[in-house]
Amino acid sequence: MMAEMGMTMDMSWSATDVFFTFAMWAVMMVGMMAPSATPMLLLFAAARAGRGEHGVSLATLAFGLGYVVVWTGFSAGAAVAQWALHQAAMLSAMMASSSGLLSGTILIAAGAYQLTPWKSSCLTHCRSPLGFLMTNWHDGTTGAVKMGFRHGAYCLGCCWALMCVLFVVGVMNLIWVAALSGFVLIEKIGPAGAIAARVAGVAMVVLGIAAIA
After folding, report:
1. Which of 127, 125, 130 has its CA nearest to residue 150?
2. DSSP category for residue 190
3. 140: pLDDT confidence band, cut at 50, 70 and 90?
4. In 96-128, which positions are buried (b, 16+ CB within 10 angstroms) versus exposed (e)?
5. pLDDT band at 55 (very low <50, low <70, confident <90, very high)
6. pTM of the entire predicted model
């Protein structure tokens, strides 16, 4: 895949390489977040229709646009991080960390974040689509973009650390990409999502310590 994108593992990247990496992350993030964001999007569309407002499809697209903008920003940051790790020769051909210290640090940081009040707060918002719409409603297309952006921000606050784990297991490892997507869905929709988040946090901290040790 890296060769197909014009990148090599033993040479410095060009601006084109960085762009393709950003595009890869953007597509991957949208694909990974789409399943868990769909309930909110459908509820928003139903709410607009229930209000009898015109241009429901446009407003729904605007909401989705606001959401995607947030994850596009994260993708830009992830691409820069990947470039920096590549320059430091800390990534394998599968774009996974080749350093036990780096892997452990990422896992410990991600696991610790899973246990913080910030994670808990963002997850609560993501698990309550109706509550979010009731407390953050804005009319009009511009309002829909704002709502989508705000929901995307909560989603980012909930999941950014989990996405960083890809640098440990391999950005191009499709099995882990699917597994993380499924876990995000469990966190946001599953009956014990909050508990699953904390259990995963503890597990990542333990694995991180083991990786460093």
Report:
1. 125
2. S
3. confident
4. bbebeebbbbbbbbbbbbbeeeebeebbebbbe
5. low
6. 0.87
Spacing of C-alpha 61 from chain mean position: 20
Sign of the C-alpha dihedral computed for residues 26, 32, 33 and 38 taken in this order: positive
pLDDT at residue 2 tops 70: no
**Token pair listed for 145:** 């973009």
pLDDT digits (tens, 9 = 90+) for 112-128: 999 999 999 999 999 99
Are the beta carbons of 122 and 114 closer than 8 angstroms? no
Domain boundaries, the chain: 15-212
* Residue 165 · residue 208 · CB < 8 Å: no
Rounded Cα–Cα distance for residues 101 and 97 (Å): 9
CA distances for 197 relative to 112, 151, 160, 189, angstroms: 11, 19, 13, 12
User: What ranges make up the beta strands (E) of 3-137?
Assistant: none
Q: Residue 88 contacts by C-beta under 8 Å, 6 or more apart in sequence? A: none
